[in-house]
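A further point concerns the way the authors explain their paired sequence and structure data. Showing the layout once, in full, would remove most of the difficulty. For illustration, here is how one protein appears when written out as sequence plus structure tokens:
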Amino acid sequence: MEPDRLNSPSTFTMDLEVMGNELQFVQDPNSKHLGTTVWDASLVFAKFLEKNSRRGKFSPEKLKGKRVIELGAGCGVAGFGMALLGCDVVMTDQVEVLPLLMRNVERNTSRITQKNSASESFGSVQVAELSWGNEDHIRAVDPPFNYIIGTDIVYKEDLLEPLLQTIFALSGPKTAILLGYEIRSTSVHEQMVEMWKRHFEVKLVPNSKMDSTYQHPSIQLFIMRLKPPYAEKIVERTDQELDEVETAENTARVVDEKVDTNEVRSSEEKGKNCSLSANVEENCEPVPLPQNGKLTDWEARRYGSMAARLLHDVKIT
């Protein structure tokens, strides 16, 4: 694990209130996989949705029934934010993470559905394996999606290209991509932003749109859509796929007709049948220490993260 991880190794559950629902996420910070820890960008993402859910494009009225896929879902925090607004969410990750993810899905789905007022607006959540670039995994989740989401999923340069190609494969011409990201490496960050701007129309969510508590200068939220040339390629790909489906249906119809004819002949002769069976606009200042000297859980997480990052750069001689 990275030395500046945001959760204590002794913390195996994390409680989070989202849209009036008390959710609880199991995590395993001691595992060798980064996906088994709740990272702060997912909390910022979920609370951003909560703040902007009363009206506009993130309201339940706008999102009800929309198809969402979460890449690198980890513990599933961001995906539940979308599901609580009425979306049908497919949470994906590598196979090693799926047991913990499914446990969180079962636990929190049960909590939500037992609360009648919340279950009416709750969409659905499914879990699937998806390794970026794996064509079989991508076909299995049945793209395209209305929204592609992810939080803290980029931390190495060699992940950028597989992520980009996976986003292309999961997108339709009107797909929106929502990504939350904490800057840890300047090099990775610069390459990532350059890649996004080359292929997408990129908007950086201002801090004024985020929850007043769940935000931090190093955590950014991106809202992106494919630029016209790439969106047009998606349209061409979709048209081609539709043509292939139509061709396959026509072929099947011809086969059916031949089979029907053969069935009559065969029935007469032998009595047998046959069948055929898609720039931060504002800066956020670090949270000041409260006057009563007590820190909230969020403040403690952030100060711990900053301290770990500073200590990581200290050399003892």
